[in-house]
Write the C-alpha cells for this entry.
Amino acid sequence: MLKINNLSKSYNRGAIKAVDHLNLHVKPGEIFGFLGPNGAGKTTTIKMIVGLLNPDEGSIIVNGYDNQKNPIEAKRSIGYVPDTPTVYDRLTGIEYLNFMADVYQVPPNQRKERINYFLEMFDLTDAAEDLIKSYSHGMKQKIALAGALLHNPALWIMDEPMVGLDPKSSHLLKELMRQHCQNGNTVFFSTHILEVAERLCDRIGIIHRGKLIAVGTLDELRGGEQAETLENIFLELTEQ
Amino acid sequence: MSQFISLLKTILNVNFGISALRYRFTKEKSRLWEPVLIGLSIILGGGSVISLYTWFLQGVYKGGQILNSPELVLILALLACQLMVFIFGIFYVISAFYFSNDMDILVPLPLKPYHILASKFLIIVINEYLVTWPMLLPAIIIYGIGMRPGIAYWFKSFFILLFAPGIPLVVVSTFVLILMRVVSIRKSKDLMVVIGSLLGLLLGLTVNYFVQKVPEDNPQQFIQDLIVSRADVIQSIGQRFPPSLWATYGLARQGSEGWMYFTLYCLISLVLFVFLLWLGNLIFYRGLLAEQEVTRRRKRLSTEKINTEVEKASTPVKALFWKEWKLFLRTPVYAMNGLAGMIMVPFLMLMPFIAQEGKIKALLMQARQPNFLMWTTLSGAGLVLFTSSINIVACTSISREGQTFWISKVIPVPAKQQVTAKLLHSMAISCLGILVTTTVLGIVLRLSLLRLFIIFTLCLLGNLLLNALNLLIDLLRPKLEWNDPQEAVKQNLNGLFSILFTFAALAVFAVLTVLLVKAGISEWIIYAVLGLVMGLLTIPSTAALYALAETQYKKIEV
Ligand SMILES: Nc1ncnc2c1ncn2[C@@H]1O[C@H](COP(=O)(O)OP(=O)(O)OP(=O)(O)O)[C@@H](O)[C@H]1O
Ligand SMILES: [Mg+2]
C-alpha cells in the first residue's frame, strides 16, 4: 500500500539531513505506528508522502501510484491530517466539509451520509454552522480529521493525531482506525504515546536521526524477551 | 519605559522581518540574488516615479516664485502627504490594531493598553515614512536650495519629516478606536468593520474635498489676489486644514515667528498623540477583546438542515472559486484592500459632478461634445481599466493562503484547476469594479450604451491580461509565511510589483492609442485594434500562467 524506497531529504542545502535513505513497506490492512524522538524526521517523512515536500532522492509508491509521477491519483488515495490543523478559519465547519467533499469528488449520496456520520461522531453537529475560527483546538483537529476522511481513502496518514483530543474522541479515533483497517485499508501514523502504539499497531517503525533503526511487530522488536516494554525498547534503541 | 522600548524593538524586528532576513543571508546564500533583484527594481521603479514627481515640484516652485509665494511647493507636498497617510492609514491602523495575531501574545504580557497602542502606532508611523519621506524630501530640498533659508530651516525640516504622518494618523486612529468600540457590540462584526471603514474613508474624502477646494469661480481674481498678498495663497489652500499650514509657516517664516509655528505644530502633534493614548487606554482592549470573540450560533442543527447544505455538490473548480470568495469577503483586511479602490475612485468622480462647479461643468460639457466623444471614451476606458486593475486580489491570491496552503498541495486537484479558480475569482472582482465605475462614468458623462459597452469590453480584456500577469507574479514568489492576514496583502512586495506592472501596461496602451489616433485611423477601428491587441496579449500570458502552475505548485514546500 505504501512503499518508501531510499528516501532522503535535507534542509538548508544539505546542512540538516532530516531523512536519510529510508526504506519502508506498509502492507494493506495494516496499522503502522511511526515512532521516534523529537526531530527524528517523522514529520518530514510524512510530508514527503503526502506531497508537501519534494524528496531529494528516492521514491514513494502510494496505492500503486508513484507520488512524483502520478501525484493526483496518489493524492486521491490519501487522507492526511497534519500535526497542526490549520484549516480555513473563516469557513463554517459544514462549508469546510462540503469543500473537501467537492475537491475529493465524493458522490452526493455518500457525502450526506459521511458528513453526518463524522459530525455526529465527533460531537460537532452543534458547531457545524459556526466559523471554524470559533472552534477550540480539539474541535479544529476533529474537523480537519473529518475533512481528511470524508472520501474514504485507502491510506490514512496522520501526524500525531491523538494530541489535543479528549479521551472520548481519541478512543473513537482509535476505533475508527481499527475499523478502517478491517475493511482492508491502511493507517500510517506518527505518535509519541507508546501505549497507543503498543496496543493499536500491527507493526511499528522507529526512526532516529533520519534513519529507520527498527521495524516490525511488537514481538519482533522485543527479540524474544517477552518482558520488555515498548518504552524500554524505544529508550535503548534511541540511546546513542 | 524600558519595557516599552523592548516591546517596540521586538515588533520592529517582526515587522521588517529582520531576523528572518539575517537567517536568509547567513543560511540560504543561494537566494541572495532575490533581494538584490527586488532592491534594483524598487530603485528603478521608485526612482523614476520620484524624479517625475521632483520635476513636477520644480514646476510648482517656479510657479510659486512668480506668484511671490515660493512656499507653495512645501504646502502642496505636506497636504498631499497627509492626504495619502489619511487614505492608506485607515486600513493600516485597523489591521495593525485589531487584526494582528501578535495581540494574542501581547495582551497577556504585563503591559498597559497604551504601551501596545503606542508601539503599534509608532510602527505604522515608521512604515509611513517609506511613503512620506519620498514625498516631502524633494519639496524640502527644492525650497531649501532655492531660498537658502539657513541652518534653522534644515533643523526644523528634520522634525517636520518626523512628525508629518502624526496628525492624520491620530485622527484616523481615533476614528478606528471608536468604530471598533461601536462595532464590537454588533453582530456580524467583520462586515460592519469593512462598511464602517469604507464609509469613514468616503466621509474623510468628502470633508477634504469641500474644505480644501480653491475658489475657482473667478480664476483671474484668484491669481490677482495671490500676487497681492502672499499670505493669501497659503491661507486659501491650507486654511481649513491648519496643521500643514503651521508646518509650512514653521519652515518658511524667518525668526521667532517661524519658531512659534514650528513649536505649535510639534506640540499639537504630541498633544494629539497623548490624547490618543488616553483614549486607547479607555477603550482599546474592549474593542480588541470583542474582535477576538467570534459570534457563535450554538443552536442545534437539525439533520435536515445539514442535509440540504450538503446536497450542493459541485465541481472542484467551482468549490475552489466559492472558497476564495468567502475567505476574501470574510477577512476584513482583504475585503477593504480589494474593494477600497473601486469604491473610492467612482466616488471621487461623482463628487465634483454633484458639487456642480462652474469649471467642472464646463469640462463635462466639453467632454460630451460629439467631436470629443472618442477621447472621452478612450480616456474613460483608461480610467476604468486603472481603477479595476489596481487591487491586490490577483497578486496576493496564493500568498493569502498562508498556513493553509498545505490543503492546496494535498487535495487531488491539478494546479491548473486551482489557478483557474483564482483567475476567475480575481476576474469576478474586477468585473464588479468595471461595472461600478462604468456606470458612474455613464451617469457623469452621459455616454451612450454602445460606448459604455465598448469601455466594458476593453476593460474586461485588459483585466484578464493584467490579472493573469499578477497571478503569475504571485505564483513565482508567493509569501506564505505570515501570521496575520494584513502581512499577506500589505507587507507583500508582489503588490508593488503588480502596481509597477500595471502602470507599465497602461503606459503601453496609452502610447499605442495616441499613435493610432495620430495615424488618423477611424474611431471604431481603434477600439477594435486595442481590443485585439489586448486579447492577443492575453494568450501568451495565460499560457505562461498555466505552463508554470504545475511546476510552481510542486516547488513550493510547506
Ligand atoms: N522547515 C525546516 N527547515 C529546516 N530544518 C527543518 C525544517 N523542518 C524540520 N527541520 C529539521 O529536520 C529534522 C526533522 O524534523 P521533523 O519535523 O521531521 O521531526 P519529527 O520527527 O516530526 O519531530 P517531532 O517529534 O518533534 O514532531 C529536525 O532536525 C528539524 O530541525
Ligand atoms: Mg513532527
In short: The first helix of chain B runs from residue 2 to 16. Confidence is low (pLDDT under 50) at residues 214-220, 226-231 of chain B.
